[in-house]
Amino acid sequence: MPLVPFPSSVVDIARRVRSGEAGPLAAARQSLAAIAREDARIQAWSHVLPAARLDAADPAGIAAGALAGVPIGIKDVIDVADMPTGFGAPALVPGAAAFDACAVGMLRAAGAVPVGKTVTAEFAFRTPGPTRNPHAPAHTPGGSSSGSAAAVAAGMVPAALGTQTGGSMIRPAAFCGVVGFKPSFGRVFRDGMKLTCESLDTIGWYTNGVEDAQAIADVLLGDAGPEGPGDRPPTIAVQLGNPRASLSAESRDEIARACAALRAHGVQCVPVEAERETALLLQAHDVIMHYEFARSLAPVAERRGEALSAALRQAVAHGLAIGAGQYREMRDAQASLRQGWRALYGGADAVLTPSTPGPAPRGLDHTGDASFNKIWSVLGWPCLHLPTAFNRAGLPLGMQLVGDWEGDRALLALGRKLHHLLIQQGE
Questions:
Q1: CATH C-level class of 235-272+340-426
Q2: Sign of dihedral through CA atoms 218, 223, 227, 228?
Q3: Which residues are within 8 A (CB) of 40 and not within 5 positions of it... i.e. 6 or more apart?
Q4: How far apart are the first and last CA of the chain?
Q5: Topology of 10-220 in CATH?
Q6: Considering the entire predicted model, what is its pTM?
Q7: Do residues 354 and 385 lie in contact, with contact meaning Cβ atoms separated by under 8 Å?
Q8: Residues 8, 31, 46, 75: which is the catalytic one?
């Protein structure tokens, strides 16, 4: 059965606070109560704001902003003032951050209330933290933004920040059954975030609906391009193939059902084959990610290697062995393919593609397959996961829409329109 979301949406919380119907800290208090009630089961939080500090907060700066009073979780690779940043590495004893990361500061200036730090895989890489999938605790919540997605899915917050290098935003959104938005690379300021891959890392967010994702985009993205196709029927390119992953039968059936629903409402769904480009992008992601990750984490591995997992140390060694020439070659491929949207997809308004090969797999020692995410991360295009249904075991199903480079607003507007259609069809 679907979980119960946070009692109010981002949009409703802010509206009620601005109108005076609710106090500026009322939703944050609800959030802390929900965390106290639910997190022993889910383990989505690495640090929670003490209630006494919330009581001491000045509500004057909260009540008028676009996100007035909205409680929000922050992935634990992003700084929040006076909270520790632990990077998902328990053996590294963190101190409290002196300042908010830029994105957190922007949210706070808009009236949002950071209520804690959410669990991340170790340095946003591969080794999972303790978080469990709220729908099925024996199944992975995905990673590396596991705590953020699970906290929204379990109704502890209406929104949370995460990050994506390969599939770390979209995969947890899919496994936990929430809306996940990864903006175009470079659209969100990353100051105050622990960068592991300079050319890939992107801050994104989780919500329960696309309208709420748009509200956060209004704060963090500002004017990010055109609003979408308007009243004309959109065209969607449908891309299912991936040389490294096989799509499960139930996920394939769900996308087929979605395409039928869209066509019934006048949306053109055009199959696209991009095997050569996909294979090249997957290769580029592996090289770029390991090369940059290794150089980012090498100083930590050198000084505190005993505090890191074997998998992370091996990834550093692997990345340091990649030559600069191979790295530059893959960066050139990245730049070339990033600009090839119109040629490859024939002017489609978005690409409809799997978020994951299937529903969340059983087991907590891994975070799932990111093959359907990596190509979009290396391109830097915006991605929006839309939860659409549940399988017979009660695990979420869905798919992602991928937008044009820097077409973030258009993607969100289109996703809001299409998600509504799909949810209606799926009920």
A1: alpha beta
A2: negative
A3: none
A4: 13
A5: Amidase signature (AS) enzymes (3.90.1300)
A6: 0.97
A7: no
A8: 75
